[in-house]
Amino acid sequence: MLSQVEKMRCETPQGFFFPRIISVDAESGSYLMQHVAGEDMVSLTSWSPPSVFLETIDRLRCFLTNVQVSAGVEAFPTAKWEEKMNRTLETIAVRCPILLEPALSAADRMRSLRPGAIPAGPCHGDFSLSNMLVTPRGICLLDPISSPIETPIEDAAKLLMDMDTAWSASRFVGSFDRSKVEIRWRRAASDLRQAIEKVCDADALEAMRGLCMIRVAPYSTDSASVEILKAGLKGVA
After folding, report:
1. Mean pLDDT, to the nearest integer, of 21-36?
2. Which of 12, 79, 153, 166 has CB 3.0 to 4.6 Å from 16, enough for a Cys bridge?
3. How many domains does the structure of the chain reveal?
């Protein structure tokens, strides 16, 4: 798997970029990156004109569909997917037992899926709206992580999960119009899902979306996040 720093050093399509890495401390596993000024996606969705939001979403749609099409193809790695799902369920049982039952039910439904081929290639790993800044230069991508399955379909799945549940909005500290954000994101998610399913296997996309949903469950320690995940897991598969 690509490390976080290696991912940030990869080239990105025009209109997208990572912050420049200034220094890396291999011993501590930390790095220093440039400050990038930009507008976060929660504020942009809430306060910017609708045309600005729609243009940004269209850029994300083009980015995600293009990387699916340009990637190589391989069989869906069912064993690795199952392994990661089972390990995460064990973690949920310890860290957030209140979500274990809905997570187990979602996992059972997901196992009935028969994903086919997936695009093969690197991905951001945490492609959520909270990890993006909209700048005059383009969309700055923040905090990539290692992924259990390196495939660009995971980025599409993570973004859909985020939009479906308004997860990034639930973690946002600041003032915003919650109703407007939730409505715009869910509408955008519906359009994005249709576009992605035209270029990749729908079952594979849903399998990865379900895995993304389960992966964030151990971090849902507050009551609001728990309720979001309960509802979200009911809609998996």
Report:
1. 86
2. 12
3. 1
